[in-house]
Structures are given as structure tokens and as C-alpha cells.
Amino acid sequence: HGGLGNQNTDTWDAHDDIESNHRTGLKDNEAIPSILFTPERPRYETNLTEPLTQATFLAFLRQGVRHIWIGIDHILFVVALVMVSPLRRDGVSWKPVDRFVPALINVAKILSLFTVAHTITLTVAALKLVSVPSRLVESIIALSVLLAAINIVYPIFARWTYHVVFVFGLFHGLGFASVLEHLTAARRAVVETLLGFNLGVELGQLMIIAVAFPIVFLLRRQAVYQTVVLKAGALGIAAIACVWFVDRAFG
Fold first, then answer.
1. CA-to-CA distance for 105 and 219, rounded, in angstroms?
2. What's the whole-number mean pLDDT along residues 226-248?
3. Taking CA atoms, which of 27, 125, 149, 163 is between 20 and 30 Å from 80?
4. Predicted model pTM
């Protein structure tokens, strides 16, 4: 239980909770905000006279960015899509597109569908409206990365790219939900939690695209990009995805 100091603030350890404070009329306050303690931040200072809606939102916004950056399988799936985004298939070979903006719009559409899909399943799973076995979810995520890598060399997605990305995005959202379940401490703050985490994931993706897309667009006409970079990248991503799939599907 926390009390007010001279400046209407109080500081506590990660082992303590602020539950009630008769001076400010707070009761069962631990059920309202979500405060994340980490080894790097074992203490937290807050104003007990104000709601922690903003703090909750910002905390999970940061967690969303962090988990897209440390989620290597999600990153590789996005990167595999971005690698061929400034190219178009012409028979058995890739041809570079001419203009930057249409190519950027195309990759933005693809990743927007991916975002919408994983937002849907992340939300329903975090609210415990649906439950899917973790082994199945993680195995399909690994399979999605493998197929995205194959698509770099051979266009198995073809005209179904949007549909495939949306379906796999649903499973990627379930993968995020397994993380969010451990982070969510307060069900009353579910709106701030889900909104912050989803926006954080999207922001993390946009940062990756902002770095990767201009690079691949500039390199798209280089012979070494199509003959070496694309094939080597596809092989590397596929190899990693195969290891993940075997490990996740068969333990």
C-alpha cells in the first residue's frame, strides 16, 4: 500500500504493490493500471492522484516495438516480403519496377493486411475468446517464413499474395498473444494494453520497412542482387525456418 509524499508521488520496489490509498480515494488500484517492471527498471514513480491510462499505453507501446524487434520469425517473414517488393515476376525471372511510389504502396498494402490480421487474432486471444495450441501456432509461423523464403525464388504466392499474407498474419497474431498474455496484469486496462501493444508492433514493422525497402529498391537493378542476394537470402531464411519448424512441430 502506497502513501503520498510531499510532492504527491511515491516510489516503490518491484516487490511492492499500490492497492489502496484512503487519501486519494483509490481502492484496489492494482486492477486498473498495468506497470511493467524489468531488471533494467525495477522501480517506478507515479502520481497517485492521476489515472495511469497514459503510462499503461506507453508501457505496452514500447513492449510492442520490442517484441517485433526480438521476434526474429516475424522479422524474417516481413523481410522476405520486402526483398521482392520492388520486383515483378516476368515468366521465370524477376524484373525491377520503374517507380518508387507504386512499389512502396504495394508493400504498404501487403503489410497493412498483415497488421490487420495479427491485430484481430491478438485481440481475441488476449481477451481469451479463442485458444489455439501454442505448438500449432508456432509451427505454422515457422511454415509461413519457409514459404515466404521459397516465394523469393519461385512465386508460389503469385496472385494470392494478399490472401496468403492475411491468413499467415492471423497466426502471427496468435504468436504475439502468447507474449501479451504474460504481460497483461490488469483486465480493466485491456483497451490501453491492446491498443498500445498493437500500435507498438506496427511501429516496429514500419521502422524495419523504412530501413529495408529503400535499400532493396536501390539495389533492384543490380545483377548481383537478383543472382546472389535474393538466392542467398532465400536459402538462409528457408534453412532457419526449417530448423524452427522441426523444433516446434516435433519438439
1. 18
2. 93
3. 125
4. 0.74
